[in-house]
Amino acid sequence: MADDGARWVELAKAWMADDPDPETRAELHALIIAEDLAALEERFSAPLTFGTAGLRGLIGAGLARMNEANLARVAAGLARQLLADVPDAAFRGVMLGRDGRRKSDDFARVVAEVLVGQGVRVYWVPMAASTPVVAFLGRYVDAAATAIVTASHNPPAYNGFKVYSERGSQIVPPQDARIRDERDAITSVHDLPRVPFAEAVADKRIRVVPDRWFEAYYEALDEQCLGPVPPPAQVSAVTTALHGVGHRWVHEVLSRRGHRHLFPVLEQAAPDGEFPTVTFPNPEEKGALDLALALGRDHFAELIVANDPDTDRLCIAVQSEGEATGYRVLTGNELGLLLADWLLSEGARDGTLPERPLVVTTIVSTMMLERLAEARGAACAEVLTGFKWIWDYALSREDAGETFVFGFEEALGYCVGRAVRDKDGIGAAAVLMELAADLKANGKTLLDRLDELALELGVSVTSQVATVLPGLDGMERMGRIMATLRAAPVMEIAGSAVARHRDLDGPDADAAGLPRGDVLTWWLADGSRVVCRPSGTEPKLKVYLEAREQVGEGEALADARARAAARVEALEAWVRELVASVA
User: Fold this and answer.
1) Is-contact 465 572, C-beta < 8 A?
2) What CATH number matches the domain at 65-209, 3.40.120.10, 2.60.40.10, 1.20.1270.90, 3.40.640.10?
3) For 14, which of 42, 106, 483, 549 is 20 to 30 Å away at the CA?
4) What is the dihedral of CA 176, 514, 314, 163, to 10 degrees?
5) How far out from the chain centre does Cα 51 lie?
6) pLDDT number for residue 113
7) Do you find a cis peptide bond into 174, omega within 30 degrees of 0?
8) For 133, phi and psi rounded to 5 degrees?
């Protein structure tokens, strides 16, 4: 142990000698003085890696944290990969944005200075901006890549770095590995050439994005909407940005589409990286929507429209007298089905649907999209978790004549067209509002439409059991759980036999035409499904559950839903017992 401790101290001292930030140098110095070897080990045992949505980590000192030194390394690695692999990369440059989190502006300036120092021009988004807006701008100028300093919906202590390729979609292998290898080959941050930000702006090596480029984003969203302007009915909605960057973008787009009855949660409208009114700035988390729900009740609003801090996700709650809060929060799967149905059905009615439409979802999202796609005459595919895989597949099918129309993942991520090659909570909000307006004009609500879809396609109830396992011990425990499940094949889950099993960390991935990943799936004889995977962006083990039931002739819809809900509860109990049993 003494030798290990000395190793961590020496690594920390070497890092301090090369670290450009006095704040993180002081942090490491304090840990060394305190002889906190466990904290040093956690910071230096392994570097940050590209997960389902880029690099993410706690803000702080060390190899495994988000800090100026790590951002400088990854920026230099990105520049070197682009110069080696992408034609005209130096001239085409990198579109660079950031959200409103702690350190985002500082980190983005480091990235800009290092990129320019490596000979790559930078397009600088002048304000904290939504991730989908920045992703769109990268494609708009045909940038060699797009980079965004953001941690999306993670807690306030986190930040991250997201990269898009020249195709405008998130990077996938081998590009992510090439950037990582170039980053890891850098021996000294101090020796990296950097051009001071003001100097690079003055000589145009950093070009500030003009306002007219944002207009192009609004126009692109307008083109992918299907309903009329103004809408056939006015739907009242409370909006919240959860202290993120989305307020200005969402209200601008919805106002342009003719929506007039919008009530923002003003306490959460301005970007604030401390997220003072929420514990966890994720609309899926308990308590995150409390202020929005209260304002909705005050205004008798029909909808709550919530985005996460970088506005790539969308959460919807619908006014409902049967709920204690006065609203029912839709699951990501329910909202995904509603959007897919509208785009496929309305697109067919108005003649804008492509000849061979394609919808794409992930292996942990509802199985009901496949049923809907079959009923609407669309191709449907499933991919690994993460929108990088959704758009990678969509682009691969262009030569086959299939045209991407919609993609979604159950974690509130939706892409409602081709303007942005990633999830876009702004574009999804615009389409959702036009669907709600169309339904209201016909005397219906989103909940009514969900009932109609359940009668047509069957009932689906989904749930997720997420176990937070922080620290090095947590990662080891996740590994033990996955290893245990692989070592002793599961034959029965909650009283139902396993009909089929798939392990994507092996030959099953090749058979399914999917990249390999740490994911286990069981399909049960009763039609249920269980999917288990470690999160790619958070220290969580996630287990996704789904139960399906057909509505019998003359049966009340509520009875079929109750059967499916009871089945999901049994699956949840099985998962919790499993996690608790593995030390």
Assistant:
1) yes
2) 3.40.120.10
3) 106
4) 10
5) 11
6) 98
7) yes
8) -65, -45
Whole-number pLDDT of residue 1: 42
Q: How many residues does the chain have?
A: 583
The tokens describing 576, both together, are 């919790």
What string of DSSP letters covers 367-382? Answer: THHHHHHHHHT-EEEE
Structure tokens at 133: 């807006």
Tokens read off for 135: 């992703």
Q: What stretches in the chain show pLDDT beneath 50?
A: 1
Q: Contact at 8 Å (CB) between 313 and 301?
A: no
Of 130, 152, 169, 365, the catalytic one is 152
For residue 79, CA distances in Å to 52, 115, 135, 480 come to 21, 6, 18, 38
Same fold, 65-209 and 458-581: no
Q: Are the C-beta atoms of 108 and 97 separated by less than 8 Å?
A: yes
- Separation between Cα atoms, residue 382 and residue 370, nearest integer Å: 9
C-alpha separations of 303 from 27, 261, 337, 428, 447 in Å: 45, 11, 17, 14, 11
Element counts in the chain: helices (H) and strands (E): 20, 21
> Residue 344: which H helix or E strand, with range?
helix 332-350
Domain 235-456 has CATH 3.40.120.10: yes
What are 508's two structure tokens? 């099953």
Nearest to 462 by CA among 574, 559, 543: 543
Domains of the chain: which residue ranges? 1-45, 65-209, 235-456, 458-581
User: Does the annotation mark 535 as catalytic?
Assistant: no
Question: pLDDT value at position 537?
Answer: 62
Both tokens of 14, joined, read 């070497």
Separation CA 276–CA 283 (nearest Å):
15
Give the helix, strand, coil percentages of the chain, each rounded to 5: 45, 20, 35
Mode of pairing for the β-strands spanning 357-362 and 403-409 = parallel
Residue 236 is classified by DSSP as -
Distance CA 225, CA 429 (A): 10
Please report, as a single letter, which amino acid is at residue 144. A
The half-sphere exposure of 411 on its side-chain side, counting CA atoms within 13 A, is 24
Question: Which residue do the tokens 């002889």 mark?
Answer: 35
Structure-block tokens of residue 75: 């920026």
